[in-house]
Amino acid sequence: MVTQDQERHVAVLTPWYPDAQIPFSGAFVESMAAAVAPGLDRLDVFHTDEWIVNASAERRERIWDAHAGMLPRSVPPVRTVAGARLRRVPVILPKSKWRDFGERAEHHAHWLKAALGGEPIEAPVIHAHVPIYSAWAALQNCRPDARVYATEHASFLVKILRQPRARAMYDEILHRLAGYFVVGDVLHDVVAGTFPHHADKIRYIANPIDFGTRRAAPPTALRRWLSVASFKAGKRHDHLLRAFAACRADDPSLTLTLAGDGVLRPEIEALVDELGVREAVTFLGMVQPSEVPGIMAAHDVLVHPSAFETFGVVAVEAVAAGLPVLITRCGGPELVLDGIEDAAGVMIDVVDDPQALVDGYRLLRERYPSKTDLEHARGHLESKYGYEAIGAQYHRIWFGENGAER
C-alpha cells in the first residue's frame, strides 16, 4: 500500500488509446487518465499499439531485429491529458498470429520490455486495461514490489477464453493481480463462470464520463434523433433506420444524425436510399471523443438499439448532455440506468424486430417530459460516473480508504 508521504506515481497500460487514425479507440482510457491525474505526482500511460506485419520469415527476422534496436530510443514520452506522460509502444505482430490471443499477449510483453530497455516499469502502482494484453505485459515488466490492477472491458472476452493457452494465462493474471475489475454484469458473469475460484476477486468500476457540456435547456420535442455508434452488425443500424423511416412516415419533421463509421457504411448508406430517407439522415463519420458531448447537446434524443454493450457509456453521455434516451437492455445500459430508467427515457428489450424501437419511441414521446426527470437522472449519474467520483474511487483502490483525501 502506498502511504500518504510516498510519491503517488501510477502507470496505466492499455492496448487502445486515441490517435489521429482512430480518435475514438480507447477514449475511455483517456477519460480515466484525465479523471485520476488530479492528486497524483506522476501518471505514465503506456499504449502498446499492435502493428500487423505480413512478411516472409526471413524478412520478419530483419524487421524484428531493427525494431528491437530502435525501440528504446524511438518512442519518447509526450504529454497527453491532464499532464500525463504518454508513451506509444509499437507491438509488431505476425499476421499469422492475429487470432492467437496468447501469442499476442506475449508480443505485448516482449515489445514493452524492449521499449523499456529491459528495465522494469518505474511506477509502484500499475493499472492495466484489457488484462490478456496489458495486465500480462505489466506483470512481466513490473517492479518486484509493484501492485498491479486490471480492468476488463473487452466485448470479445468469450473468444479469448475459448483458447486454452489464453485461458490459462488469464487464470495466472487473476491470481497475481492486486485487484481485478469489470465494467458490467455480462463480463462479471463470464469471468466468474470460467474461473469460479476467482469469483470473490471480481469488483466493479465504471468508465468516467464528461458532465461538463449540456444543453442550455431540455428538448421541447424529440424530433432530432442521434446515434453514436460504430458501423458494425451488433449496433443494429438496420433496425435503427427501419424504425426511423416508420416514425418519419408519421412525422416528416424527424431527422437522424449518425456519428460513427465502419465497414458496414456502404450497406447502411444503401439502406438509407432504399428507405427513401436520404434527405433526413446526416452522416458525420468518425468524431473525436471530445466532440461527442457537444454533438449530443445539439440533438433531442439518443436512440441506441445495440445488441450488446459491456458498459453503457453512450447512455450516460446522453443524459449528461441533457438528452432522454431510447435504448436497449443489452448488458451495460440496464446496469448504469438501474433505478432511473423511467427518469432517463425508455428502455426496450433486444428483439429482432424494428417495430419494438418504433413502439419505444412512441412511448417516449407520450411520456416526455412530464413522466421523465432528466435533471434527477443526470445528478444521479454524475455522482456515480463523473470524473471526480471515478477519480476518487481509483485513488481509494490504489492508496486505501483515505486515498482520495489529498
From TrEMBL:
Record domain Glycosyl transferase family: where: 225-367
UniProt feature coiled coil, ranges: none
The keyword Protein biosynthesis appears for this protein: no
Gene Ontology MF term list: glycosyltransferase activity
Keywords: Transferase
InterPro entries linked to this entry: Glyco_trans_1, Glycosyltransferase_grp1
Keyword Transferase attached: yes
PANTHER family: SULFOQUINOVOSYL TRANSFERASE SQD2 (PTHR45947:SF3)
Stated name of the protein: Glycogen(Starch) synthase
Biological source species: Glycomyces artemisiae
